[in-house]
């Protein structure tokens, strides 16, 4: 049976430094530590306006770094910054697969 990859609509709302992601079903998450500034780092999501991208944090964790190691090498970060960067990355990749029914 055929399958289709259907990405949920992700609406991003910018309210000052606050950012919210919604899957459209009332499951909105607020990311008050994640900022997007068009003039900084090509508009990539960063942590609290620092020049540390969400991508950098995710890659460090994926590379096996512990939170304590990240905090030692990036003293401007806080533990909650790392957690929220991971939550943001997970929310931004929210994708679902739907099985298509055969026509009757």
From TrEMBL:
Which organism's genome codes for this protein?
Answer: Sinosporangium siamense
Please give one Pfam family short name: DUF433
PANTHER family, from UniProt? SSL5025 PROTEIN, SSR2962 PROTEIN
Family matches, as SUPFAM superfamilies? Homeodomain-like (SSF46689)
Protein's recorded name: DUF433 domain-containing protein
Kindly list the organism's lineage: Bacteria, Bacillati, Actinomycetota, Actinomycetes, Streptosporangiales
